[in-house]
Design a protein that fits this description.
With 447 residues, this protein is of the alpha+beta class. It is 46% helix and 18% strand.
Length: 447
């Protein structure tokens, strides 16, 4: 049998009761018109009554244009070219066989077509002299191609083809270039891929040297592997581990991995540990393998040593830096005293509380003033409360205290200054006391 859209086929019509693969072309009132993919796309018809065993409510839900369907041949009229087909009479066993045969035929046709295109030989001649004889000798050309994967078997197949199909002569189309092309395509597409087998377990050991015991158990599991089925064991995230192996024989791989799990379990339980099998040994797909690889990478990234979190606590400022030599003494003191206390407060979180740290607490103006050799009158003169009489401070020749001629004005200014200074002094003491209490709370002190 040839394959989809191939014009070269051995038989023009299928046999009655044969299950064939078709492609739906159109849907009509009487049924669906289809093309027989394995017989040169000749036309057939699936009767409406042969679509389903149940009552048909919607034909579109049962069959769609363009879909490939396995159907059974009911009647063949070679004179008129009519082929009646049935979809409802196909059993699940016949369905599986038809799909398997069709997949193999697709592969055979793909190899034949590629060889014909690359070597320049005639595709119809290649089918006639090579493919169809292999169908007759091996039941399907795919079986012959699967045998030709090894070098020794390939020569035996070519020799049998020449002896049984061509009377001991090599067919003309089977040149050395065609042979090499067939073998290259067969080995590229039919070389069996190793099957991945995997088992998931959880293992713990709380003994004194538990880590070493777990390592010994992992070594015992790996020792259970063979040359054809090597076993590896990896840590995903404690206490989860995975055992994996690759093999061409699925049954053998599952058997070897099961023995490895048993060896690991015996070793860890002998060391007063515990192991639970979460997933038995089974064949896994590429998708599951990619998911496991991503999980391993995520666990590795999470366990990788990183630098600790940076300390984001705000640093305490030691106050304003004043260059007494460059700036005037009076200007420097005024700037220090006029700095708003509230605007210099900083907040930080400590055990759910908010602690107010005042820069005024960290500044000792008296010590700075004494270090600079500043007298108390000069310090009082620099206070912002006396800003109202700054113009009077520059007065000359008045002969009065602070240059104020009016006694009542002098005493009014003195009283206002005393009140302002007292309020400022009391508020500063309250802020210092509150800060001391908060600091004592931080250090767990109680008075």
């Amino acid at each position: 049998m040839a394959h989809q859209d191939c014009r070269f086929y051995e038989q023009q019509y299928p046999e009655v009761d044969e299950v064939v693969m078709v492609q739906v072309r159109s849907i009509a009132e009487m049924g669906a018109y289809v093309s027989l993919l394995e017989y040169g796309n000749i036309e057939g018809m699936i009767l409406l009554s042969e679509l389903s065993r149940r009552r048909i409510r919607s034909v579109q839900k049962l069959i769609k244009v363009g879909r490939q369907e396995p159907v059974m041949v009911l009647r063949v009229d070679k004179e008129k070219g009519y082929i009646d087909l049935s979809k409802r009479r196909v059993s699940p066993e016949d369905l599986a066989k038809c799909e398997d045969r069709f997949a193999k035929s697709k592969l055979v046709h793909s190899i034949m077509r590629h060889v014909a295109e690359t070597t320049g030989c005639n595709l119809e001649q290649l089918y006639t002299e090579v493919a169809w004889p292999l169908y007759h000798m091996y039941g399907h050309a795919y079986n012959a191609f699967a045998t030709m994967v090894s070098d020794a078997e390939s020569e035996a197949v070519f020799k049998r083809l020449a002896d049984e199909a061509h009377g001991g002569n090599v067919p003309p189309v089977l040149s050395q270039a065609v042979k090499d092309g067939i073998l290259v395509n067969i080995r590229r597409r039919l070389t069996p891929q190793p099957i991945k087998i995997r088992a998931d377990v959880e293992m713990t050991c709380f003994a004194y040297d538990g880590v070493e015991k777990i390592k010994e158990s992992m070594r015992a599991a790996q020792a259970a592997g063979t040359t054809a089925c090597p076993v590896s064991m990896k840590l995903v995230a404690a206490p989860r581990y995975v055992l994996t192996t690759q093999t061409l024989d699925k049954a053998q791989g599952i058997e070897v991995l099961t023995k490895a799990v048993e060896a690991c379990k015996a070793a860890i339980e002998g060391s007063k540990g515990r192991m639970v099998v979460k997933e038995e040994a089974r064949a896994v797909s590429e998708k599951e393998e990619r998911a496991l690889e991503e999980e391993l990478q995520a666990a590795e990234a999470a366990n990788r040593e990183v630098s600790g979190d940076t300390d984001e606590d705000e640093e305490f400022e030691e106050g304003m830096d004043v260059d007494v030599d460059k700036a005037g003494l009076q200007t420097a003191l005024c700037q220090a005293l006029r700095a708003p206390v509230a605007s210099k407060a900083q907040t930080r979180s400590n055990a759910g509380r908010t602690v107010v740290v005042c820069r005024a607490q960290q500044q000792n103006l008296a010590a700075k003033a004494a270090a600079a050799g500043v007298s108390v009158p000069a310090l009082l003169a620099a206070h912002p409360a006396l800003a109202l009489v700054d113009d009077r401070l520059a007065g000359e020749g008045t002969g009065k205290i602070l240059g104020i001629n009016d006694p009542s004005l002098f005493w009014a200014i003195t009283i206002v200054f005393t009140i302002v200074w007292g309020v400022f002094y009391v508020s500063t003491r309250e802020i210092d006391a509150a800060s001391d209490r908060e600091n004592d709370d931080d250090f767990g002190l109680t008075l």
